[in-house]
Write a structure and sequence with these properties.
The complex is a heterodimer of chains A (113) and B (113).
Chain A: E1 4-7, E2 10-13, E3 19-25, E4 31-38, E5 42-51, E6 54-57, E7 64-66, E8 76-78, E9 87-94, E10 103-104, E11 108-112
Parallel strand pairs in A: 2-11
Antiparallel strand pairs in A: 1-3, 3-8, 4-5, 4-9, 5-6, 7-8, 9-10, 9-11
Chain B: E1 3-5, E2 10-14, E3 19-21, E4 24-26, E5 31-38, E6 44-50, E7 56-58, E8 64-68, E9 73-78, E10 87-95, E11 100-103, E12 107-112
The chains are: A mainly beta (113), B mainly beta (113).
Chain lengths: 113, 113
């Protein structure tokens, strides 16, 4: 089945540590997105990538970094510089012409201890 | 950058009642408009979208939305809700010029049997 795999589903880290969230897709979609979901905040765009080896900052990129070395993969690193990292993180994909995310992963819930 | 407003974050209603969720956006240029739904324990998924043409858009499960350009609105409606419509609903706006999708804060809808 085609889809998006985010792992792990739950992630706990100590304050001050960097942590990387995985997002893999086999939908052959060019575009990939990372969103953060907080209660009462909706979804906010962190980073997006429309093509391999290229990505752009979203609305809340500070404290995060990404890479897009392969079409299938778009890992997100939450760095120690991110002031409030505890949140639910959603990865999404879309075709190049669709202009919006079409499929969403199950998400990773990150908790900083 | 565009922004999206959704009011009445929590909505509780009985089965067979009518539902209308408001969505207003701020952006002066051309936009694409979306409603997403997230059922409990499931992926975020696309409910309906408007790109151009007839401003009254019909989506899945009996939902419809009307784009009123003069009011910068894209309200979601369903004439008669069911218990299975219990979910969180997100309005989103994509400005064609910047290819960024902005989400509203969401409406948590609970339908009581």
């Amino acid at each position: 089945d085609g889809g998006i795999t985010q792992s792990p589903k739950y992630l706990f880290r100590k304050e001050g540590q960097n942590v990387t969230l995985s997002c893999e897709q086999n939908l052959n979609h060019d575009a990939m997105y990372w969103y953060r979901q907080d209660p009462g905040q909706g979804l906010r765009l962190i980073y997006y990538s429309q093509i391999v080896n290229d990505f752009q900052k979203g609305d809340i990129a500070e404290g995060y970094s990404v890479s897009r070395e392969k079409k299938e993969s778009f890992p997100l690193t939450v760095t120690s510089a991110q002031k409030n990292p505890t949140a639910f993180y959603l990865c999404a994909t879309g075709t190049a012409i669709s202009n919006q995310p079409q499929h969403f992963g199950d998400g990773t819930r990150l908790s900083i201890l | 950058a565009q922004s999206v407003s959704q009011h009445n974050h929590h909505v509780i209603l009985s089965e067979a009642a009518s539902l209308e969720l408001g969505c207003n956006y701020s952006y002066g240029g051309t936009v694409n408009l979306f409603w997403y739904v997230q059922y409990p324990g499931q992926h975020l998924q696309l409910l309906l979208k408007y790109f151009s043409g007839d401003p009254l858009v019909k989506g899945i499960k009996g939902f419809e939305a009307e784009f009123i350009k003069s009011k910068f609105s894209f309200n979601l409606r369903k004439p008669s809700v069911q218990w299975s419509d219990t979910a969180e609903y997100f309005c989103a706006v994509n400005a064609r010029e910047n290819n960024r999708l902005a989400f509203g804060k969401g409406n948590q809808v609970v339908v009581i049997p």
